[in-house]
Amino acid sequence: MSTLENIEVNITVELGAATMPVHHLLRMGRGAVIELDTSENDPMRVYANNTLVAHGEVDIEGGNLRVRVTDKIFKRD
C-alpha cells in the first residue's frame, strides 16, 4: 500500500469550455462573462492525468463545495 501513496495524479474538473481569440480575452474586464459550451444541468467532466475518467455534479454541504461523481468512464482498448 505504501507504494501507491507515492503515485501523483493530476485531477481536473471541467465545468465547460469556450474558444475565443486572445485579443477578445485581453479586452475583457472585471465581471466579464464567458459563455461556456454547457448548461448548468450538464454534468462536469473529471479528468485524471488528462484522461476523462468520470462525470459529476457540484454539491454543497456545510459550506464546502465538492464534486460528486455520478458516473465513471471505463475506457476499453
Task: Write a short abstract of this structure.
By secondary structure, the chain is mainly beta. It has one helix at 22-27; strands spanning 11-14, 44-48, 51-61, 64-72. Strands 1-2-3-4 form a 4-stranded antiparallel β-sheet, with no helix packed on it.
Describe this structure in words.
Its main location: membrane. The chain is mainly β and 77 residues long. The protein has a single domain, classed as Roll (Surface presentation of antigens (SPOA)). The protein has one helix and four strands, in the order βαβββ. It has one helix at 22-27; strands at 11-14, 44-48, 51-61, 64-72.
Going across the biggest sheet, name each strand in turn.
1-2-3-4
Count of DSSP helices? 1
What is the fold named in CATH at topology level?
Surface presentation of antigens (SPOA)
How would you name the CATH homologous superfamily? SpoA-like
Which CATH architecture would you pick? Answer: Roll
Q: What value does the average pLDDT take?
A: 90
Helix content: under 10%
Count all strands and give the number: 4
Helix and strand content put the structural class at mainly beta
Uncertain residue ranges: none
Strand content: 35-45%
Keywords: Cell membrane, Cell projection, Chemotaxis, Cilium, Flagellar rotation, Flagellum, Membrane
InterPro entries: FliN-like_C, FliN/MopA/SpaO, FliN_T3SS_HrcQb, SpoA-like_sf
Protein name: Flagellar motor switch protein FliN
Organism: Devosia rhodophyticola
Key descriptive features of the protein:
FliN/MopA/SpaO; mainly beta; chemotaxis; single chain; cilium; Flagellar motor switch protein FliN; Surface presentation of antigens (SPOA); about 10% helix; extended
